[in-house]
Design brief:
heterotrimer; A mainly alpha (654); B mainly alpha (101); C mainly alpha (203); A: 654 residues; mainly alpha; B: 101 residues
């Protein structure tokens, strides 16, 4: 089995190396074949691993494969921990990655950096596998940083576009802030547990529960909050969310792969993996829940006023990540992973569909200039419909099951603030439905608002683009129905996730579960369903039926509109406070400290001081021989006197 | 009887007169050179006095060589003086101050 | 007071007086002549000390050659005729004090206590057939022959140095450089040009 795990991890790496270094030599065809073959191998093997571990109940695999370094008593190695959680993540990551690889053939067909792109996405797949399969914090951090790096490379893929370069720098720096907290958390883990291996740390949790630091805060709480800060950076929670909309500057395939399905879910995965630790700290769980709720609600609101098709989906991603985080906060870890899985499928689908529209319209992205694409791009239309219905939680589709479970879990949670969080996530359903359908109607229905030239060229995209769309639409529709029972309640994730006995959300959920079939009619009685219907209806009215009402609302609430359109001012705040502050500090250090103090006073000043002393001493050299002779004679006299009368052995006594 | 110390004191007096001559003299460089000769003469007297009182000829041999060196030094010194006169036009001691700092 | 002492003090007096006169005289030629007088006194003292050869050598070489050389230079540069201001004022008191202190200290060291007659008795005078030259020569050409040769080389160097220093190079003198003449190449001197003769052009 060890070989299989290694192959899963290394096959995309081999593809990445070939495509990266020899891409121009091998040509497009060969590069495509090699990289897709690598990811295909990983996908097939991931399904095999899933089958072995989850369906057949295989043993958990935890082994160190290679000792990276041994520092005193600390052993840092490359190792794999394969349990059910890992297996599920492997399937999700590899399948979405394979779809994106196939999609890229058509999407990046005209781009000059075709082979480079394949190399990067294969490299990303490798990094994500290493992150997911790791069995210690150091390898987790390695995978963490590696996905961040590849994300940077890919966002700035079109590096001649200035906005892309700014966006990738922003993504990297904001992630860095999160990683700083993450690293502090790992350091504390090392300090208090003495090891970085998951199993060893979880085994010795009992020793550290009573220990406190920073006048009274429990160490576990501090560690959990710091680790969550890392998750906030990677999974784009408020306030470290500012990079995700900017990351839409990259090509659409990577928005699907990285910023919808895999990298941003790394934070969620990490918190689930650390569930034994988080369960011991209620404070951390409250923080997680509240931050997730804020993100879910407020980012959803921002999705309403976006006009770029990719930005709408980006804010939708942010909002759904908030939902996952809320699920983590109420100790419903398996629900969070469930939503992660379904979200990966339908969000990737939505992004790829958006990309299909963009390619058909020759890279136009403003939804106000689209419309009526239903007839011209049927496959894209139907798959987008499936994805949108899944996103808004239409009964029967995947998103319905996962989202409703989250809302129910919050409802049953006993944590403080959970009531406010419940209100927030329920309102979020309305908002999600509203912006999703707004975008759907504006793009595919109604009159065509495209210009003549674009309208004449619109046609359905090539098979390499539509095949992944269909392949992703199928799980978006069905996977919720098929897997909700086993994943949440029948122990698919039992050997990976620990829930404390006093966090009863999961238990209550199980008690109230009527089965996948039973949930659909039951939904008609729940508030979220009617919120969703309300959202659909409002979107239809305001976009198709009476769009002038939408303009009237925008004028009437222009202040709220301004707040939303300026994205709550996060970017301006960061710019003024952090960037401006550092610039001022840099200026000060340059002018005062470096130039004034060191250069002028210390360096030049010491030179001038030497010159000053020299100018005093110089006049002794008069140039006259008799002066020199005089000095010599006087010196002789002094020496004579010294030798005769003073000194150690005077020749004469006075 | 004249004791050794009389000769030695005499030679030291001549030595000091020569020293004073070097840095009191403001007239010209020739006087400087002549004071150097005086000093050498005083030292020679010292040697010969010791040679006489100790009965050892080594002192006189040494004076022999000092005379040789003094003669060579005068020759070269006067050659330099001639050059200096050619360049500067006078041999006033105040003229030779171009090495001042 | 023995006759020896009287002679000694007489000679010392003239020595000191002429030295002082030398350094305080304004005329360079007079200074040279006073120096000559000093050297004569010194030579006489050396004879008193039974170093006859050296005393005569002093007169012959030093006074006869070196002082004469001084006079040559003085006359050549016309120093005695030019008016030179003698500036003594500044350093004289200081110099005298320094000199007196040095003499006092040296007297302390070289005085009667250390080198008086009881410590260092006067040696017996040599007989009439004592030849100072022979004694010196016996030492000079056996034990000290190497420094003797070196002294000869030193004098040679002094001659060469003195000549080189004052030697004036004549200007406007063309000299042959043999090496350049030998290293000349044909193409530095000759260039072959082809010219068509006018008679051929006209044809």
């Amino acid at each position: 089995m060890e070989q299989i795990y290694l192959t899963i991890a290394l096959a995309p790496l081999v593809g990445a190396i070939f495509a990266g270094f020899f891409g121009s030599l091998l040509g497009r065809m060969a590069t495509t074949v090699i990289t897709i073959a690598g990811v295909l191998i990983s996908t097939v093997l991931s399904f095999y691993v899933f089958n072995h571990h989850v369906l057949e109940g295989g043993e958990v695999f935890n082994q160190n494969l290679y000792t990276w370094m041994q520092i005193g008593e600390l052993n840092i190695s490359v190792g794999f921990l394969i349990d059910n959680l890992t297996a599920i993540m492997l399937v999700v990551v590899s399948f979405v990655s394979l779809m994106v690889h196939i999609y890229t053939i058509g999407y990046m067909h005209d781009d000059a950096g075709y082979t480079k792109f394949f190399s990067y996405i294969s490299l990303f797949t490798f990094s994500m596998f290493m992150l997911v399969m790791s069995n210690n914090f150091m390898q987790l951090f390695f995978g963490w940083e590696a996905v961040g790096l590849v994300s940077y490379l890919l966002i700035g893929f079109w590096h001649h576009k200035e906005s892309a370069v700014e966006a990738n720098l922003k993504a990297f720096l904001v992630n860095r802030v999160g990683d700083f907290g993450f690293l502090l958390g790992i350091a504390l883990v090392l300090m208090y547990f003495g090891s970085l291996d998951y199993v060893e740390v979880f085994a010795s949790l009992g020793n550290v529960t009573g220990v406190t630091m920073l006048d009274g805060t429990s160490v576990i709480t501090v560690i959990c909050i710091l680790l969550f800060i890392g998750a906030m950076g990677k999974s784009a929670q408020v306030p470290l969310h500012v990079w995700l909309p900017g990351s839409m500057e990259g090509p659409t395939p990577i928005s699907a792969l990285i910023h919808a399905a895999t990298m941003v879910t790394a934070g969620i995965f990490m918190v689930s993996r650390m569930s034994p630790m988080f369960e011991l700290s209620e404070t951390a769980l409250i923080v997680v829940m509240v931050v997730g709720a804020i993100t879910a609600l407020f980012m959803g609101l921002l999705g309403i006023v976006q006009n770029d098709i990719k930005k709408v989906v980006a804010y939708s991603t942010l909002s759904q990540l908030g939902y996952m985080t809320v699920a983590l906060g109420v100790s419903a870890y398996s629900v969070a992973i469930f939503h992660l899985m379904t979200h990966a499928f339908f969000k990737a689908l939505l992004f790829l569909a958006a990309g299909s529209v963009i390619v058909a319209l020759h890279h136009k992205q403003d939804i106000r200039e689209m419309g009526g694409l239903r007839k011209k791009m049927p496959i894209t239309y139907w798959t987008s419909l499936v994805g949108t219905l899944a996103l808004i939680g239409f009964p029967g589709f995947a998103g319905f099951y996962s989202k409703d479970m989250i809302i129910e879990a919050v409802h049953f949670s006993q944590l403080p603030f959970s009531d406010w969080v419940y209100v927030a996530v329920v309102i979020g359903v309305f908002i999600t439905a509203f912006y999703s359908l707004r975008m759907f109607f504006l793009v595919f229905h109604g009159e065509s608002r495209m210009d003549e030239h674009t309208a004449s060229h619109v046609k359905e995209s090539s098979i390499s683009i539509t095949l992944p769309l269909v392949a992703l639409a199928i799980p978006s529709a069905l996977i919720g129905y098929l897997t909700i029972d086993p994943m949440l309640f029948n122990g698919w994730l039992d050997n990976a996730i620990t829930v404390a006995a006093n966090h009863t959300s999961m238990a209550s959920l199980e008690a109230n579960f009527h089965g996948a079939n039973g949930m659909i009619p039951h939904a008609l009685q729940t508030l979220p369903f009617w919120m969703m219907v309300g959202g659909i209806a409002s979107a239809w009215v305001l976009t198709l039926y009476r769009s002038q009402w939408a303009d009237w609302i925008q004028k009437k609430f222009h202040r709220s509109n301004y707040v939303l359109e300026s994205l709550y001012g996060f970017d301006r705040f960061n710019d003024i406070v952090f960037v401006g502050g550092i610039k001022k500090l840099g200026n000060f250090l340059w002018k005062v400290s470096d130039s004034g103090l060191i250069d002028k006073i210390l360096v030049n000043g010491s030179a001038r001081f030497v010159g000053f002393i020299a100018s005093i001493v110089r006049p002794i050299q008069t140039g006259y021989v008799y002066h020199y002779a005089f000095f010599m004679i006087v010196s002789l006299l002094i020496i004579l006197t010294w030798v005769l009368f003073a000194g150690d052995n005077p020749l004469l006594e006075l | 009887m004249v004791s050794l110390s009389d000769y030695l004191i005499l030679s030291s007096v001549i030595f000091c007169i020569g020293l004073v001559g070097i840095f009191v003299n403001r007239t010209n460089i020739i006087t400087l050179l002549m004071c150097v000769e005086l000093i050498l003469a005083a030292v020679n007297t010292n040697f010969i006095a010791f040679s006489h009182f100790l009965g050892n000829e080594a002192g006189q041999i040494f004076v022999f060589f000092i005379l040789t060196v003094a003669a060579a030094e005068v020759a070269i010194g006067l050659a330099i003086l001639t050059l200096l006169f050619r360049v500067r036009g006078s041999i006033d001691v105040d003229v030779t101050n171009s090495l001042k700092g | 007071m023995g006759s020896e002492q009287i002679i000694f003090y007489f000679l010392s007096f003239w020595l000191i007086a002429s030295s002082l006169a030398m350094i305080f005289s304004r005329n360079a030629a007079k200074a040279v002549l006073f120096l000559v007088l000093s050297f004569f006194s010194v030579a006489s003292i050396w004879i008193l000390l039974e170093a006859e050869f050296l005393a005569i050598t002093l007169i012959l070489v030093y006074v006869g050659a070196v002082m004469v050389l001084f006079l040559f230079v003085i006359k050549m540069l016309n120093i005695d005729k030019s008016t030179l201001r003698a500036k003594f004022a500044g350093y004289l008191p200081l110099g005298l004090i320094v000199a007196l202190i040095i003499i006092a200290e040296m007297t302390l060291v070289l005085g009667n206590a250390q080198f008086g007659l009881d410590v260092m008795p006067a040696p017996a005078r040599h007989g009439a057939d004592y030849s100072n030259i022979t004694e010196l020569a016996l030492q000079l050409y056996t034990t000290y022959v190497y420094p003797f040769e070196l002294a000869a080389v030193l004098l040679l160097i002094a001659i060469i140095a003195a000549i080189t220093l004052v030697h004036k190079k004549e200007i406007n003198r063309k000299q042959q450089s043999i090496s350049e003449q030998v290293n000349v190449r044909a193409k530095d001197r000759v260039r072959i040009v082809s010219i068509t003769s006018p008679s051929k052009e006209n044809k």
